[in-house]
TrEMBL record:
Leader peptide range in chain numbering: 1-23
Keyword Secreted included in the entry's annotation: no
Protein name, UniProt field: Tetratricopeptide repeat-containing protein
Classification via NCBIfam families: TPR_END_plus (NF047558)
Coiled-coil boundaries: 51-78, 132-159
Native source organism of the sequence: Kangiella japonica
Record's keyword terms, sorted: Coiled coil, Membrane, Signal, Transmembrane, Transmembrane helix
Transmembrane segments: 90-110
Length: 290
């Protein structure tokens, strides 16, 4: 079943990639209005297909859980049957031994039949108690192992389901052009995984694109609180600071971002948010030399 899920995810990725390539090639010679119209025509079909695949994954997960519960129940029943059968056979053997021993003792004239009966009852009761306790311990241990294994399988299935759902939302967010709708998708991701720093950064970028620089600044701060070594979070906060006119704070954040992620230095000249900083000597000192 795990291979089938991986195959489905891989097939979905290839399908979306093919659709993206076809859309890019067919839209090269058309106007922007026609491109938006085609995107809006394909998007409901894509969303519907994704939802159908998610429903299929959930149904498969439910079937797996049902199968696991059935197997656990059968294993418990088989173990109980074996224990009862073994106990029954053992008791029969004990009674045979006891009968033989009693016959020998009678022949040998050992005390009286009352003493023999009392002793035999004591031996049988002790042996039965020992066997019962032993198999109770074994059954308890087996049940504990089965319960632990079942919980591990259920947890793994939940992780797979959650990962598939997050992947689906990320893909839908990538296909979305409306910034408000993108933010809704990022909120869905954060609702499932509140520590997803990537979702915070993308949400901050969308807020910046909408012109809400204070919101973008706040989201970037949240990302930095979660991971102080994530360079892109400082970069996003630098964009918000630059837009708000906090020039020195923006320069400081750029320095930290480059220190945490040195590859960002190549993006300095291409970042539109830093257009007003490019005339500053301190900013030019950060740019790579030609």
């Amino acid at each position: 079943m795990g291979k089938q899920l991986l195959h489905t995810v891989f097939w979905l990725f290839c399908s979306f990639f093919s659709l993206a390539v076809v859309a890019a090639d067919s839209g090269a010679g058309e106007t922007e209005d026609k491109t938006k119209q085609k995107t809006s025509n394909y998007q409901p079909l894509i969303e519907r297909y994704i939802l159908d695949e998610l429903r299929s994954v959930r149904q498969d997960q439910q079937q797996i859980v049902a199968d696991i519960e059935k197997k656990v129940a059968n294993a418990r029943l088989d173990a109980s049957d074996r224990a009862i059968r073994y106990t029954s056979d053992t008791l029969n053997n004990i009674f045979i031994i006891i009968t033989t021993a009693a016959s020998i003792l009678v022949l040998m004239g050992w005390r009286s039949m009352r003493d023999v009966k009392s002793k035999l009852n004591e031996v049988v009761e002790t042996k039965i108690n020992e066997l019962t306790q032993e198999y109770e311990d074994r059954l308890g241990e087996l049940e504990g192992k089965l319960r632990k294994r079942s919980q591990e399988i259920i947890d793994a299935q939940e992780d797979i389901s959650r990962s598939n759902e997050l992947h689906s939302i990320w893909m839908r967010a990538g296909l979305e052009n409306n910034l408000h709708q993108k933010i809704k998708f990022y909120d869905e991701i954060l609702a499932i995984n509140p520590t997803d720093i990537e979702a915070l950064i993308y949400k901050a970028d969308a807020a910046y694109e909408l012109g809400d620089y204070e919101w973008a600044f706040s989201l970037a701060n949240r990302a930095i609180e979660q991971d102080e070594d994530y360079g892109l979070a400082y970069w996003q906060r630098a964009c918000a600071n630059a837009a708000n006119g906090a020039t020195q704070e923006a320069i400081n954040d750029i320095k930290i971002a480059i220190e945490k992620a040195p590859k960002l230095v190549d993006e300095l000249e291409r970042e539109d948010a830093f257009e007003d900083l490019k005339d500053l000597e301190e900013f030019r000192a950060l740019t790579p030399k030609a």
